[in-house]
Design brief:
The complex is a heterodimer of chains A (405) and B (231). Helix content of chain A is 54%, strand content 15%. Chain A contains 13 helices and nine strands. In chain A, strands 2-3-7-4-6-5 form a six-stranded mixed beta barrel. In chain A, helix 1 packs across helix 11 and helix 9 packs parallel to helix 12. The longest helix of chain A is centred in the N-terminal third of the chain and has 41 residues. The radius of gyration of chain A is 33 Å and the shape is elongated. With 231 residues, chain B is an alpha/beta fold. Chain B has a single domain, classed as 3-Layer(aba) Sandwich (Rossmann fold). Chain B has seven helices and ten strands. In chain B, the strands form two sheets. In chain B, strands 6-7-8-3-9-10 form a six-stranded mixed sheet. Chain B has a four-stranded antiparallel sheet with strand order 2-1-4-5, with helices on one face. The chains are: A alpha+beta (405), B alpha/beta (231). Chains A and B meet through helix 1, helix 10, helix 11 and helix 13 of A and helix 2 and helix 3 of B.
Amino acid sequence: MNNKSLKTDVWIAFRYFQTRRKVGMASATSLITLIGVAVGTMAVLISMSVLNGFRDVITHRTRNMEPDLKIHVRIFDESDQRNLLTDLKYNFPDYHFTPVLDRKIIVSGTKQSLMQLKGIYPSELGSMFKLKPYLKYDLFLTEDIGQTDFPEIVLGSGLAYSLNLMVGDTVTLLSPADVEYYSAPVMKAILKNIYDIDIFNYDDMTGFVHILDMQYFIDEPGWHEIYVRTTDSNAEKKLRSYLPDQLSLISWKDEHRELFAAMEMEKKGTFIVLNLIILLAGFNLVSSLIMLLLEKKWEVGILKSMGLKDNQAFRIYFILGWITGGIGMVIGLISSLSLLLWQQFHPFIRLPGDVYFIKYLPVAVSPWDVLLTVVVLILIITLASLLPARHSVKLKPLDSIKVKM
Amino acid sequence: MNEQILKALNITKTYQSGENRLVILKDINFTLNKGDLVSLMGASGSGKSTFLNILGTMDSPDSGQVIIHGVDTVKLKENQLAEFRQKHIGFVFQFHYLLPEFSVLENIAMPLLIAGEKRQKALSASVELMDYLGIAGRKDHFPAEISGGEKQRAAICRALISNPDIILADEPTGNLDRETGWQVLDLFQKINREMNQCFFLVTHDETIAAVADRQYYLKDAALTHVRNEES
C-alpha cells in the first residue's frame, strides 16, 4: 500500500464528510446515521450499566442476609453438632461460624401469614446478618432470654405491615411441621423491631427469634445449619475437604443460582436487543453511504479518469463509513461513560422512593461491557462500510461520468 | 518528424440497440504524434466521443488495438488502466467536472495527489501551471465561486498537471459562450505551441475544428481525413 496515496484517500474521505452538510439529502441521512450510532452506543452502555448496578445492589443486600456458606448439620445429634462447631472454630479461626435453627411457620397478628423463622444468637443480627443499618429502631433481641417475659421477634417490614403489626405488638407463632398428637406447637412473641432491606424474599418472608426460644418453640435441642462468613475465596473447598461426607455444604451463589442466572440472562437479552439499535444504525450507515455514492458517482468517474485505482475508491468509501460510524461511536462512548461515571460516583439521578427501594439510579460500569460494545460497534461499522466501498469499486469511469452528462 | 505517441489499429465498436447491432466505428486506423493538434468533427451520435473514450482507455473497442507509447492498452486491466491514464492521458470535458468539495488548486493537484505525489510538490506545481494559464488568483476559490471560463481553464490545468502525452478534449467549448470558447481554444494553441503538447479535440463546430493542424470527420463509422494545416 502506498502511504502517500493512503493519505490522499483519507483526506478525500474527510473532505467528503466535512462538506456533506452542504450536499442535500445525503447530509441529513449522514447526521441521522451519526446520531443513530451514538444513541445506540449510549443505549447499550447505559442499560448494561444500570442492570449491573441493580444486580450489585441486590447482590449486596442478599449477601447481607445470606452467609457465604451453609453447613447442614441436622443429621447430627446435638452433642456432635456442638463438637463440630468447636472443631470448626478451632481449625478455621479466621472464619465466623454461627448455628441457626429455622422453620417455616404460621405467624398471626390481626391476620395470618406463612414465614421463615430463624433462630439465631441476637448478636448475629449485626455480624452474621448485617441487618443493623436496615432496622427501623435501635432495638435488638435481648441476649438473656431470662430477662424477658415473652420471646422477642424481629420481622421484615412487608410481613409486619401485611399483618398490621407495630413494634410492641404480640404475635402468635405456630409450627405446623411439628404437629404431635393433633396439636401444633404455639409460641407468643413480642415484635421487638422491624427491618426493611427491600428484598421481597426477606422483608415479606423472614423473621428472627433468639435461638433458645426457637429450640423451645419447636422442641429441638440442636441446630439445622451452621452459617459461615469468611473472606477466604477457597473456603468452600477447604471446608468440603474437612467436613464429614454426610454433611452437605452450600454456597450462597449455589443457593441463589436461579436468581443470578435470571439476572445474567436478562442482561444478555437486553444486550442483544439493544444491539439491534446499533444494527439499525449500521443499516442507516449503508443507505447514507450508498446515497452519497450515487450523488458522487460522477466524481468517482472523474477521479478514476485521472488515475484513481479501484482499491483507492474502496478505501475512500470505507474510510468515509468509518468516519461517520466512528464519530458516532466516540460521541456515544464519551457521553454515556461521562454520564455513567458521574452517576456512579456522584449520583444525581434520583428514583421515586415510593416505587423503588433505593434513592438513586444504581450504575456500575463494567470494562467488559464497554469492550464488548466497542467490538460489536467495530464489527457493524466495518460491515456497513464494506458494502458501499465494494460498490464504488464496480463503478466504471465512463458510465459514472455519463450520469452527469 | 515528431515522435509517434498513439496508434489506433483497426478499431471497431458496435452497440446493441434492440435487435439491431449498430456499427459505430469500423476498422479505423489513426495516429497521434507529439505536438499534434488534431480535431475530429462529426454529427451528434456519429461516435466521435466513443472514439475519444476508446483512445483515452475509458472505453474498449470490440476489436483492434490502441497502442500508446508501445503499450497495447486494450489488454490492460482496470487498475493498470487507471495508472496508465494518470501518467499518459489528460481529459478536458464539455463540462468542467471540477470536484465541488475541493478548492481550484486542490482540483488541479488531484491527479498528482492520487498518484501519491507529495502534497507540497503537487500544490506548487499546480500554482505554477495556474499562473501560466492566468488563474493563479483563483487558487483558493471553490469551483462554485469562479466563472465558466475559469472553470474550463482549471480543468485544462488539471489535464496538464501530470504532464501527459495526450490531452483528449471532448467538446471543450460546448458549454461556454463564444468569446470564452475562443479564449480556451487560444490556450490550447498556446500550450500546443509552447509546450509541444499533443491535443485531440472532438467538436461538431467547423470553426473550432479549424484551429487544428489536422482535421478528421467521422461519418458512417469511418474516419475521413479532411485537411492538414500545411496542405
